[in-house]
Amino acid sequence: MKTPLQKVRRWLKEKGFELELRRGLVWQTNLTEKRLTGDPTSMLDYPLNEAEKLAMLLHECGHVDRQRLVVQLGTPWDNDLLATGKKRTSAWYIAVVREEMDAWDAADRLAKRLALKGLSRAMARMRRKCLMTYIGWAAQRGNSISGTIKK
Ligand SMILES: [Zn+2]
């Protein structure tokens, strides 16, 4: 019988993606290079148990399934410019948050498709944790952009 990790690996392989899980790597997907990386032990300063690790992996697979990522690699988290040199707009920040939400939805569907059981609580927990990080970032950076409604 295949372990959940083996099932996800096989799914990624069918999509032509390489998976590397190593301590110190950031959880991210590179759609151009067809590469998915992650730290099997933690997400930033948050230690991951087995189910949470799988949830993080499935989330990245959600981006693979959708073939869509707003934040491309090489676009710094703390930069207000796009790769084109144009300024990021509040609509751009919102698009990032929306894509992250959609990737979590895709992750839930993939867990069902691969018949991975017992993950729903870990999926919900990691979804909340990751989305709140994105929402906080978008709100903070997006606030400096003109067009913000003043109180
Ligand atoms: Zn993501």
Give structural notes.
The protein has 151 residues and is mainly alpha-helical. It has a domain at 43-139. 50% of the residues lie in helices and 10% in strands. It has helices at 4-14, 50-66, 90-113, 120-142, and strands spanning 18-21, 28-30, 35-38, 42-43, 46-47. It has a three-stranded mixed beta sheet with strand order 1-3-2, with helices on one face. A hairpin with a 2-residue loop joins strand 4 and strand 5. Helix 2 packs across helix 4 (120-142). The longest helix has 24 residues, at 90-113. The radius of gyration is 16 Å and the shape is globular. The mean pLDDT is 87. The protein binds zinc ion. Zinc ion (ZN) binds next to helix 2 and helix 3.
Proportion of residues in helical segments: 40-55%
Residue fraction in strands: 5-15%
Strand order of the largest sheet: 1-3-2
- Characterize the biggest β-sheet: 3 strands, mixed
- Unreliable stretches (pLDDT < 50, length at least 5) are none
Count of helical segments? 4
Radius of gyration: 16 Å
Quick take:
This protein has 151 residues and is mainly α.
Break the fold down into its secondary structure elements and pairings.
Layout: H1 4-14, E1 18-21, E2 28-30, E3 35-38, E4 42-43, E5 46-47, H2 50-66, H3 90-113, H4 120-142
Parallel strand pairs: 1-3
Antiparallel strand pairs: 2-3, 4-5
For the structure shown, list the relevant keywords.
binds zinc ion; mainly alpha
